[in-house]
Write a structure and sequence with these properties.
Layout: H1 20-34, E1 41-47, H2 50-65, E2 69-70, E3 79-84, H3 91-101, H4 103-108, E4 113-117, H5 119-124, H6 127-131, E5 137-139, H7 147-156, E6 162-164, E7 185-189, E8 191-192, H8 203-206, E9 211-212, H9 215-227, E10 232-236, H10 251-261, E11 266-270, H11 279-288, E12 295-297, H12 305-311, H13 317-330, E13 335-342, H14 349-362, E14 366-371, H15 389-410, E15 418-427, E16 432-437, E17 442-446, E18 455-463, E19 467-472
Helix pairs in contact: 9-10, 10-11, 14-15
The structure holds 5'-deoxyadenosine and iron/sulfur cluster.
Iron/sulfur cluster (SF4) binds next to helix 8.
């Protein structure tokens, strides 16, 4: 039971065409036989991006297969896991303070197991347990598939902490998508890790080297998810544009394959890297739009070429703008969003102003802007000219205010338009529905529950920067 090598998902070589259904079946058979969980309640607390949310879903699915019972309340749990992202904030503090809140539960039930996983696990390793002995086990982003065994070890030897954070650099990325309740719209991972080493970013250190899943596995996953009622998939990776399958297919080929080989109604993806976003992809998006949604998240990070160079982003302001213009001519309805860092080490007031001007020039409807935060292992954390905190805060406010003013006016263009909405939620308290347009706007409107899962026409009555109200026509 404790032997990780019994995990069949880590064994096959990339060249073998192992079907995801087979892997899934072998896992569920194995856990059925072993009954690691004995029905124990498990609660997972998640901080972070879509990747972390997706990882937590995978953890729940694996643990449920091993006969643990997911619960919504830590008081009901015999296993509590904190899955935390470490991209920006100081997540380690958050983890410690959350673990502290479970002290009473642990006193009441000494068999309660507390684990920390994901990016913070990969980053901090055994240090977490040295600092906070209430923690029983720590695992990294590459050890999620051993989680049932890790938890089992923790129960079998209650006095030993379990630390499994090693990367499986040499193993191909051969896992199938595991989602407990996929709903109408769900995520499908296609790559993991990142090799870009932007100087501010911890991801290459917490998620390891970039690897792509086999093409046929992605297609089979989507077919399986559709049988479970999924209508829309968001293809996920740190840099989806550098996807390369074992049979030589690139990201544009993969999107085309998804559209041609499955009947999924909508495909989205995130995140792109501007240096790898090419004309071939733009053309595939245009050819299969609206099944491939015309929404592109294209992180710029800074509007100044000198700062971009120090960030090791691999493009200049001018090259980025040329790409945006190309997108606008090939995909005239495309809606763009972006990520921005203000106060990167050495950023001058003029360089910051270049970011503001670029944001307004491109016309992003949504921006995700952050103050630079030094991360462990990264080059920029060692740059000398760090920007003071108050300057970062002021720049962030200035950028957000300039963008907000622009976008509030811009989105009014949607009022009165009839948009195709894939309905994905029903709120029974308010008797209202919500769903998303192909351009990734969240629309709220009144309607019946049986519309969930359908693509319907909604007339927009009020448009805000990221949400809209409408009525079914
Ligand atoms: N400081 C601030 N923001 C960061 N991001 C990544 N690393 C840092 C950091 N050290 C932002 C980038 C990235 C997004 C996911 O988080 O904008 O695109
Ligand atoms: Fe981080 Fe850069 Fe990789 Fe994105 S591309 S995950 S910012 S290193």
């Amino acid at each position: 039971m404790q032997n990780q090598e019994t995990h069949s998902i880590s064994e096959p070589q990339a060249s073998q065409q192992v079907q995801p259904q087979f892997l899934f079946k072998s896992l569920s058979d194995k856990y059925e036989k072993d009954n690691i969980g004995h029905g124990k309640g498990v609660y997972i607390s998640t901080y972070g991006c879509q990747m972390n949310v997706n990882d937590s879903d995978r953890m729940y699915a694996l643990l449920e297969m091993a006969n643990f019972t997911p619960v919504n309340d830590p008081e009901q749990a015999e296993v509590i896991i904190i899955n935390a992202c470490s991209v920006r904030e100081k997540p380690v503090h958050k983890v410690y303070s959350e673990v502290g809140t479970y002290r009473k539960l642990k006193e009441r039930n000494p068999n309660l197991k507390i684990g920390v996983g994901g990016c913070v696990g990969s980053q901090e390793k055994g240090k977490l347990i040295d600092q906070q002995p209430l923690i029983d086990f720590v695992f990294g982003t590459d050890n999620i598939d051993s989680l049932p065994e890790i938890v089992a070890k923790s129960f079998i030897n209650p006095n030993d902490s379990v630390i499994e954070t090693q990367f499986r650099h040499r193993e191909p990325y051969m896992v199938e998508t595991l989602v407990r309740n996929p709903g109408v719209s769900t995520f499908v991972n296609i790559t993991k890790g990142c090799d870009n080493f932007c100087t501010f970013c911890v991801v290459p250190y917490t998620r390891g080297r970039e690897k792509s899943r086999p093409y046929s596995h992605v297609i089979d996953d989507i077919k399986n998810l559709m049988q479970r009622g999924v209508k829309e998939v968001t293809v996920l990776g740190q840099n989806v544009n550098s996807y390369k399958s074992e049979c030589g297919k690139d990201f544009a080929d993969l999107l085309e394959g998804i559209v041609l080989e499955t009947e999924v109604e909508r495909v989205r993806y995130t995140t792109s890297h501007p240096k790898d976003f090419d004309e071939k992809l733009m053309k595939v998006m245009a050819k299969y739009n609206p099944r491939i949604c015309e929404y592109i998240h294209l992180p710029i990070q800074s509007g100044n070429s000198e700062v971009l160079k120090r960030m090791n982003r691999g493009y200049t302001r001018e090259e980025y703008l040329a790409k945006v213009n190309q997108i606008k001519s090939i995909l005239p309805n495309a809606v763009l969003s972006t990520d921005i860092i203000v106060g990167f080490p050495g950023e001058t007031e003029e360089q910051f102003k270049d970011t503001v001007s670029l944001v307004l020039e491109v016309g992003y409807e949504t921006i995700y802007a952050f103050k630079y935060s030094p991360r462990p292992f990264t080059k920029a954390a060692r740059f000398e000219d760090q920007v003071p905190e108050d300057v970062k805060s002021r720049r962030l406010d200035e950028l957000l205010a300039a963008h907000d003013q622009w976008t509030r006016e811009e989105v009014k263009k949607y009022e009165g338009q009839v948009l195709k909405v894939l309905v994905d939620q029903f709120d029974d308290k308010r008797n209202s529905l919500s769903g998303r347009t192909t351009q990734n706007k969240n629309v709220f409107f009144l309607g019946e529950k049986d519309l969930v899962g359908k693509i319907i026409d909604v007339k927009i009555t009020k448009a805000f920067p990221s949400t809209m109200r409408g009525e079914v026509i």
